[in-house]
Q: What sequence folds into this?
């Protein structure tokens, strides 16, 4: 790797993943996402850059972090340590130092070589299968230089490469990444621009344009429909989604992903309100109905990813 090879921010590496593409995979989660979906199950990956989370209930008052902090951003409080947000640079020293794990770093900077060293540990498990690496997030296309360098490094090792994306990026970025990608796991959240904007914070026009562009240029695509009760599970939206998907070359099928609220505890840990609090539980009958509408459009449908 050259000295100019980009680095990026990653918040997790998951081994032995079974639902992030074909066969057994390593999933690398890149931090930062331009969307703010009400049902996001990885809220720790939404903000770019490293975040430091303090957990007062774990603090034992030892003062180790106060001494270690190179910015002097920490001070003793009545019940736990106080953090000066203006002085803190999220260097992670407090998280590395604290014996009680009362500070936690969400994401850190990685070089391409560091990530590849982790991926290469799993090479024996990929042999004889379509197993490989999936780059997820956050939104991996939000770190295009880093993602492209990682994909290119995987190409050199002959590793199968998938990118799990919302599709929200420039067309130039989508095409750059497609050159090194074997499979896109591409989310379709809603066909109506206003509804999409209301629930995710962004318009769906660039997403749909990139989907069509990737399909027309020969990319292999597995569509994913996160089925959110009261948002996108109406029959007409499902039908429009199916008609679009069926019209595109290179689409392998569509996965219907029923909503779940398992990330609620993550929001609590981050000190954030859960934006999906008003979303009702998934209805198996409506899930089956959505799958049937999509099959009637000529698509291969799986429930779950």
A:
């Amino acid at each position: 790797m050259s000295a100019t090879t980009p680095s990026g921010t990653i918040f997790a590496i998951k081994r032995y993943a079974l639902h992030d593409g074909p066969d057994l995979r390593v999933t690398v989660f890149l931090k930062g996402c331009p969307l703010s979906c009400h049902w996001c199950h990885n809220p720790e990956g939404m903000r770019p850059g490293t975040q430091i989370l303090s957990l007062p209930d774990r603090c034992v008052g030892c003062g180790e972090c106060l001494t270690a902090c190179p910015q002097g951003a920490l001070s003793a409080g009545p019940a736990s340590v106080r953090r000066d947000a203006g002085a803190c640079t999220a260097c992670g020293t407090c998280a590395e130092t604290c014996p009680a794990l009362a500070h936690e770093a969400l994401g850190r900077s990685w070089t391409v070589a560091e990530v590849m060293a982790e991926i290469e540990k799993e090479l024996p498990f990929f042999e004889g299968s379509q197993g490989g690496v999936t780059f997820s997030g956050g939104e991996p296309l939000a770190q295009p230089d880093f993602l492209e360098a990682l994909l290119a490094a995987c190409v050199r090792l002959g590793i199968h490469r998938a990118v799990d994306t919302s599709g929200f990026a420039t067309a130039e970025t989508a095409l750059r990444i497609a050159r090194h990608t074997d499979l896109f796991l591409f989310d379709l959240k809603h066909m109506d621009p206003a509804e999409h904007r209301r629930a995710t914070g962004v318009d769906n026009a660039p997403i749909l344009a990139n989907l069509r562009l990737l399909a027309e240029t020969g990319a292999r695509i597995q569509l994913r429909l996160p089925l959110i009760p009261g948002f996108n599970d109406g029959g007409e939206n499902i039908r429009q989604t199916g008609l679009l998907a069926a019209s595109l070359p290179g689409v392998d099928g569509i996965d219907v992903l029923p909503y779940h609220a398992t990330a609620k505890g993550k929001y609590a840990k981050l000190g954030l309100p859960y934006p999906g609090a008003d979303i009702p539980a998934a209805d198996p009958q409506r899930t089956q109905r959505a799958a049937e509408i999509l099959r009637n459009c000529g698509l291969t449908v799986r429930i779950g990813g």
